[in-house]
């Protein structure tokens, strides 16, 4: 229950007692946090009664949309029946069994076993331990190194933050941990050097081959990547990239891992992002859309080959108090069942996704400082650039993106600035009329943003 307080009272208590993630506390407390009090469908309301269009589905996660009473009723029923029991020591419970069976149905062939965590980060750390354990069991304990991409994002645990390629995270906490390497991201717009996307995709994939040969294939455990880099700014690789990555992984006996925390559960119009690009990972990580953010839960989908390898090794000494938590599992089951049975993912693929992509390209193709307008399904972005003709970016990466994001916020539209990439990833239940509202507001904001850039002499 929420105490009835004024916005100012909530802000003052928040400033006094709450440390926010990825936040400069002093800076936030000077302006105060925006107090979000309720939500429904694709809309949020703040404590001053403002109605906000949530173009980011929370943090890329509320795939089914807000306000689903069927999910809250499932949570209540499960909590009343069995609020908690663990899945250690040879016990299980109906909620996690039913979820596991459903997930084995919606997962691609060859993924029949799921390990549960509480977040995407924990799923990534679990995967790191799994792939290293797999190679131990296979008699190749030297294969410990995992390779990720610069500007990839894999969470904030020590493993996830190390595997991610965000340098500003590595600077805090003496990261990366040993055994983690990175290759450049497949960002065609920035690195194409006159190559077509298709040519560039193969070149970028072969950066992985060079790194494997530099380290030594007998030391490399896995390559890990998001099908589409999300928090890195919606970097969509050329179609030739992932098939070449897969070929290289098979050639050098390196496990291939897809981080599906954002791309999973319908974001791209497919159940999972790797299906869109036609590659076949040995494991993939998930969270976010698994429960649509209604309760924290993550998962590692373990391919049959790796599951068999782990089984040969006996005890896998890893897990969490809340692995397969009954209430989280019951809500995730109801969420995934609804995504499937209500045709929500199908509609993204065939209807609202294509509509969004057409409108998005029409709306942002003509601005002087907007380029690389891109997207698939209901994940899309554009980049604010200094010169479209030369692909010249703004010198102080992120400054213009922050200006633009704040203009969006003032117009009660939430989009994400990842550096100077402007990103949208709304709930998958967004209607065409709501897509029109999102885009029309965004066009107004970008128009205002370009005016501000001119006034400040940035263009
Ligand atoms: C691909 C990927 N992998 C792992 C994680 C970590 O998940 P958890 O946060 O549940 O531990 C993520 C999370 N992605 C994420 C999380 C928070 C903020 C933003 C942003 O874009 O601002 C993105 C992610 O996007």
Automatic annotation (TrEMBL):
Transferase listed as a keyword: yes
Transferase found in the keyword field: yes
GO CC list: cytosol
Swiss-Prot/TrEMBL cofactor(s): pyridoxal 5'-phosphate
Keywords: Aminotransferase, Pyridoxal phosphate, Transferase
Family annotation (Pfam families): Aminotran_3
Family statement drawn from the similarity comment of this UniProt entry: Belongs to the class-III pyridoxal-phosphate-dependent aminotransferase family.
The protein, known as: Putrescine aminotransferase
Taxonomic path: Bacteria, Pseudomonadati, Pseudomonadota, Betaproteobacteria, Neisseriales
